[in-house]
Amino acid sequence: MKKNIGPTDKAIRVLAGIAIALFYYFNIISGTLALILMTVAVILLITSFINFCPLYSIFKISSIKKK
């Protein structure tokens, strides 16, 4: 797996994942929407920690700045 997530993209993914988790924790979201968003949050956090997004590789996108 070649890294394709840059530092800015990584920070946005982590913040979005944490925000969704907090919305769920404080019961701002519930039901089916909560389950879908929590799944998205987990995916965002996992991809940010491994610095690889499968969708980015399919579409040949990289948010890493070229040297």
Walk me through this protein's architecture.
With 67 residues, the chain is an all-alpha fold. The chain contains three helices and no strands. The chain has helices at residues 7-25, 31-50, 54-58. The radius of gyration is 13 Å and the shape is elongated. The model has no long low-confidence stretch (mean pLDDT 95).
Jot down its keywords.
67 residues; mainly alpha; 3 helices; 66% helix; elongated
Write the layout of secondary structure elements.
Elements: H1 7-25, H2 31-50, H3 54-58
Helix pairs in contact: 1-2
Q: Rg from C-alpha positions?
A: 13 Å
The profile of the biggest β sheet is: none
β-sheet strand percentage: under 5%
DSSP summary, beta strand count: 0
Helical content class: 55-70%
Order of helices and strands: HHH
Helix and strand content put the structural class at: mainly alpha
**Per the principal axes of the C-alpha atoms, what is the gross shape?**
elongated
Q: Total number of helical segments?
A: 3
The average pLDDT value, as a whole number, equals 95
First CA to last CA: what distance? 20 Å
Uncertain runs are none
Short description:
It is built from three helices and no strands.
